[in-house]
Structure formats: C-alpha cells, structure tokens
Amino acid sequence: MKSSIEDENSRLRELFNLLNDGIIVMDKKRIIVFINPSATRMTGWEVGDIIPYCLYCQQRKVEPGEERCFLASQPRQSYFESDLPTKMGTFVPVGMSRTFLSTPNNTSSRDMVITIRDVTIERQAKELETRAQLNQRTLEVQEEERKRISQELHDSISQTLYGIDLSLDHLKRNAPIHLQKRIEEIRKQVKLCSDEVRAMSRDLYPAVLYDLGLTAAIRMLAEQMSSHRREIKVVIDNNWIHDDLNRSAVHVYRIVQEALHNAILHGKATQISISLSCNHMCKVTIFDNGMGFHMDKIKNSTGYGLKNIKERVSALQGEWNIDSLPGKGTKIEVQFPNPMILS
C-alpha cells in the first residue's frame, strides 16, 4: 500500500515537472515549498525562497488587515495577469491562477498553489493587433478627410472659378478691343487654376474607384499620368479580383498612386509597368526604367512616400519588397492575402 502511494506521488511529481506552465506552492509566509522547473525557468525562484508580490499587488491600495496578495484576498477571483518579479531583478508578464491545498488536521493555514503562464507573446500579439486596428482606423479617417476636402474643392473653389470665368467672358464681350486680349489671358490663367483644382480633387478622392472599381481607377490613373514622353502600361491577370477587394481597394490604389508619383518625380521614368494578379495571394508589381537608387537610402529615408506604402501594406496584412539600382530602375512588389478567401 505504501509503495502504491509512493508510486502515485512520484508520477504526480513527474507530471508537475513536465508541465509547460509553472507551478508554485507557497505557505502563508510566501515561502516556496514546491516549485516545478518551468516556474524556476521563468522566475529563477527556488524552494525556500520568499516570493515577492507581483507588481500589481505591490502598488495596489489595501485596507487595514487586508491581505496584500490579490488572489489570496479575493475568494471569487481565481485568475488575473500581472508582472511577476524574478530572482534576477526583472519582471516577467504572467497569467496567474490560484487554488489552495487542504491541510492536515483541518488547520486554517493552507498552502496556496499558483499556476503561472508567460503571456509575453500574447501581450505582443494584442499590442500588434491594437496597433494594426489603430493604423487601419487612421487610414480610414484620412480617406474620409480626403473625401471632405475633395468635395469642398469641387463644390466651392471649382464653382467659384467657374463663376469668375463666366464674368470674365461677359466682361470681354463688352470691353474695348485693347482689353479683350488681356481679359482672355486672365481667363486662361483661371482655366489653368481650375484644372489644377480638379486634379487635386481627383487625387484626393478618386470617385471612379468607388463608382467603377479598382481596375478602372488604376487604368484611368495611368492614362492621366502618361504623356507623349512617358508610357505607363497596365497588365491585369485574368484571376485579378479587381472590384471585389472591398476596403482593400483604396489601399491598393494609394500604393500604385504613390509608386507612380515616385517613379515620375524622383526616378524621371519614361516607361512604367503595373501588373496585377491574384490567386491565393494577390500581387501588385510596379516596375520603372527610372534613375533608380542605392538601397542603403531606404534605411535612412524619412520621406512620407515609402512610409505611406508601408502603412498601406500593413493595413492589407501583406508584405512588400523594393529593389533598385542606380541607372537600373526600381521594382516594387506587394503581396497580400486574397480578401475574398479571408472573408
């Protein structure tokens, strides 16, 4: 009989020693009477050590006579998370659950069993998720503000410029001959200003993206940015899900828009190709024959353009890569999960 009990205790001890979660048994004076290897690896504490209070318990206010240990003082609270001091003087974030061991002779002094689990990874995951949600919301607010400013430009400034042009036209018909030429020059300046305002409005809020879809919007963007000295070619794979990208569409559009802007303004590119394909992963590739640059410049770059692309790719839950050499052009590749599969 005694041998059977000893075998059972041996198996239980072996089980505790193999657990990934830490097990700490402490008496009422917080002296450790048992600790398994996992708990020791996490905290450095050993049998006989007095385990300090967690960071929350150290800082919390307690009533006179109240037990400082939160888990010990709250009979209905069996789990919470805090930072546990280690023997090395650092802290480890843990999730803690507790129970009490019954004692012989029904004494009131019971050993407390604390099960601890390192929640560093969970905290990091939550932090990344929160950061991604904040980034997504920031981009949404930016798009809403772009739309508001775009409508303001169209409804207010564009209409005002149109009214000025009509007034100048009326003035020209009734003006002396020697003033008509000057008035016509002013009308041309007003028209240029009006064209710039419309272009700004279109860049801020590409209505075609929401009316006709992503494919049409990118094709129109390419047409608008092409010229007799600059060719922009768009190739769309048969599997491209184009108009079914939902909220992803605006991010893809802004990435392409930023890449084209950089290729033309900084790279002085004369040929640019845009390739769109989609299977399990969707892929956007923008390649130009521009001036290119040393890749070391990216590490030290403080420009908004690449930062904007990076944020958009993050919102797509994707990855991106940029490859460039001086005189060899630049290639940007973006990959992100097919939103239709995710949904």
Automatic annotation (TrEMBL):
SUPFAM superfamilies: ATPase domain of HSP90 chaperone/DNA topoisomerase II/histidine kinase, PYP-like sensor domain (PAS domain). InterPro entries: HATPase_C_sf, HATPase_dom, His_kinase_dom, PAS, PAS-like_dom_sf, Sensor_HK_TwoCompSys, Sig_transdc_His_kin-like_C, Sig_transdc_His_kin_sub3_dim/P. It is found in: Cytoplasm. Its EC number is 2.7.13.3. Residues 148-340 form the Histidine kinase domain. It catalyses: ATP + protein L-histidine = ADP + protein N-phospho-L-histidine. Residues 8-51 form the PAS domain. GO terms for cellular component: cytoplasm; membrane. Keywords: 4Fe-4S, ATP-binding, Coiled coil, Cytoplasm, Iron, Iron-sulfur, Kinase, Metal-binding, Nucleotide-binding, Phosphoprotein, Transferase, Two-component regulatory system. Member of the two-component regulatory system NreB/NreC involved in the control of dissimilatory nitrate/nitrite reduction in response to oxygen. NreB functions as a direct oxygen sensor histidine kinase which is autophosphorylated, in the absence of oxygen, probably at the conserved histidine residue, and transfers its phosphate group probably to a conserved aspartate residue of NreC. NreB/NreC activates the expression of the nitrate (narGHJI) and nitrite (nir) reductase operons, as well as the putative nitrate transporter gene narT. This is Oxygen sensor histidine kinase NreB. It comes from Alicyclobacillus tolerans.
